[in-house]
Fold:
Amino acid sequence: MEHVLKQFINKCDSAIQQEDFDTLLNYYTDDAILVVKPGMIAQGKEEIKKAFIAIAKYFTNSLVPAQGEMIVLEAGDTALVMSETLLTADKQETQFPMARKATYVFKKTPQGEWLCAIDNSYGTDLISSSL
Amino acid sequence: MEHVLKQFINKCDSAIQQEDFDTLLNYYTDDAILVVKPGMIAQGKEEIKKAFIAIAKYFTNSLVPAQGEMIVLEAGDTALVMSETLLTADKQETQFPMARKATYVFKKTPQGEWLCAIDNSYGTDLISSSL
Structure:
């Protein structure tokens, strides 16, 4: 059976594609971190929403995220997901890689609901960048 | 100032080098996961201790872990650390990479103490392995 976090990430990707950022923000913890690009972090729902609006605009409102191979490491109420993240967009050239090995950290609420705490699509590639 | 998690990871590395596994296990959550190698996971303190004993033996009791560049993404009581992990040992040849881009997930207890929940020294390289 597909891991519940795979379905969860698919829902996030759909919300990004539809630019339904209010729905998307429900999937994040209040103090979640989004790595917008190497060296730029958004923290908290307000900053993350602004970042997603800017990202959508950058990709001329045509961004479609999808996931390839995915590995879930689940330790109680904490999970690390490593995923091939594949971005497509109408924009011809971007300064960012469109195929990434992402790292996502999720927390389970006392109600049993998973939420994204750390959204880092750049994965360990950040190590060689100055963050 | 050096991030508290850098100091924490240094303490873990010292405990591994000294093979002081009882001290080391204090740094993990009860349901922590250790990726022993691609395809093999230890979960919980008992399994993790056995794994560290086997790892020490594999490296002929000469394993010295150290960290290079490290990035900490902290979101409230959850943190993702990405780190260049460098292993040295007297053993001449091993089947495992000695320089890795590791991913470690930490949880902060209500008492403000960080504990390791997910210890994956292989980072996103697991994606191309069958875990």
In short: The two ends of chain A are 37 Å apart (CA to CA). Strands of chain A lie at 28-37, 40-43, 64-75, 78-88, 99-108, 114-120. Residues 95 and 101 of chain A are 17 Å apart (CA to CA).
